[in-house]
Amino acid sequence: MKYDALIVGAGFAGAVCAERFAAAGKRVLIIDKRSHIGGNAFDCHDENGVLIHPYGPHIFHTSGKRIFEYLSNFTDWRPYEHRVLAHVDGELYPIPINRTTINRLYDLDLDEQGVTAYLESVREPRDSVATSEDVVLSSVGHDLCEKFFRGYTQKQWGLDLSELSAGVAARIPTRANDDDRYFTDAFQFMPAQGYTSMFEKMLEHPNIEVRLSEDFRAIRSIVEREHTIYTGPIDAYFDFRFGKLPYRSLFFQHEHLGEVERFQQTGTINYPNDQEYTRITEFKHLTGQQHSGTSIVREYPRAEGDPYYPIPRPENEALFKRYHELAEATPDVTFVGRLAQYRYYNMDQVVGAALKAAEELIE
């Protein structure tokens, strides 16, 4: 059979493109090397009946009304505002840093104006902001940097703050008020029946054929199609012609605690300076599920393994640009998604990029 599009990868980027193509009357084959749809956002019930995210917590948030409304075609939503605490010197503090963090950490009683003045007094301005260290020091100064950022970054990226591009640290705000939400987007929800259920609805169109446990390399020369949409690592598509693009990977240690209703105060607790893991997430906070036990996951960053995070450094961006030039010279293939575009995208940004790419191709 000839397809209008072969889509490689059944995560957010691939599923959105498949759904849009199918809705436009086009015949689509979507494949994934894993045995399930949903990519890293795949969720399932563990052996104890708790809904978990095998590849770490995925918390949906967006300020894009169009993106939220599009996904609402495939799921109901559960309101959820994510909160994170950081374990520092044996105590738990809100992160992003806010008024509560400052007052409790330093035994102060500052109002918003006072916190703003305090941060102004400790920050270390930089003439130019090129690295994440520049961002953090110019925002919160040395002590808060050491307590909350440097150790976490070293574990997460295997690099010091001074070795990472400024955009990494710029993702985390600092607040003078008591807002303890991790995100401030207009739309903060979780799919009410889970992500996998949402993906199933996206891919149930009769124009979509799904094949799992399918390697693109094994079928790329066999499947007859008008166009390919590729959401995997861009360097792998070109057989690593210029060398491998660097990624950070993760190891997930899942644990179920029977007859424990709550393990921790918030959905996630970060460990910037203690432990080998970066954070612990308890899924029932995210899903709202009622269960007599609870399931948690510890995340251990590592250098080897499945690619999760493109490492944002100037030399890596330069290497990506060489692959991007190859992609631009391959008109019958569209590259979209975090790995294909070598971008540290949030889920909503992937959805937005996929919608844009699909619309342009369909037109």
Automatic annotation (TrEMBL):
Protein known as: UDP-galactopyranose mutase
Family: Belongs to the UDP-galactopyranose/dTDP-fucopyranose mutase family.
One Gene Ontology cellular component: cytosol
Keywords, sorted A to Z: FAD, Flavoprotein, Isomerase
Domain of life: Bacteria
UniProt source species: Paraburkholderia madseniana
InterPro entries reported for this sequence: UDP-GALP_mutase, UDP-GalPyranose_mutase_C
Cofactor(s) named in the record: FAD
Sample GO molecular function, one term: UDP-galactopyranose mutase activity
NCBIfam families: UDP-GALP_mutase
Pfam family, one: GLF
SUPFAM superfamilies recorded: FAD-linked reductases, C-terminal domain (SSF54373), Nucleotide-binding domain (SSF51971)
Segments forming domain UDP-galactopyranose mutase C-terminal: 147-344
This enzyme's EC code(s): 5.4.99.9
PANTHER family, per the entry: UDP-GALACTOPYRANOSE MUTASE
